[in-house]
Amino acid sequence: MSKELIVEWTSIYKTGIDFIDVQHKRLFDEITKLKKLEQNSRETNREVYRILNFLEEYIIIHFSEEEAYMDKIGYDDIISHKSIHSNFIKEFDTLKNRLDSDGNYNPVQLFFFLIKWLQQHIAIEDQKYVNYQSIGK
């Protein structure tokens, strides 16, 4: 039996930090819209472009607020976490710029790239600072 990718926000992704959970859910919701789009239509390209523009702005806000929270709790691995965020932003920008120049968007391919990254990041990297906070350093 193959393991199906969970493509919606569920409680397994909760950090217990309300504002971060709200932001993560919003990211899930926007990324999931990509999976529902049909490929190769002018309307699809416009919607993919809208979603990518939203994500481009929203991930900056989310990462900034998440990093401020990690700083506030004195998270000792904040530099590594910031580096992961920075690398993702570069990867996202490269992908978006390539798509902008091609004008062809594959919403399903984008969906799988983005949802896989988000799921792994929340489940692994974000849980590190959640655990750090819960054990009191």
UniProtKB/TrEMBL annotation:
Keywords: Iron, Metal-binding, Oxygen transport, Transport. PROSITE patterns: HEMERYTHRINS (PS00550). Transmembrane segments: none annotated. Residues 15-130 form the Hemerythrin-like domain. Gene3D superfamilies: Hemerythrin-like (1.20.120.50). GO terms for molecular function: metal ion binding; oxygen carrier activity. It holds the Pfam family Hemerythrin. Belongs to the hemerythrin family. This is Bacteriohemerythrin. It comes from Thiospirochaeta perfilievii.
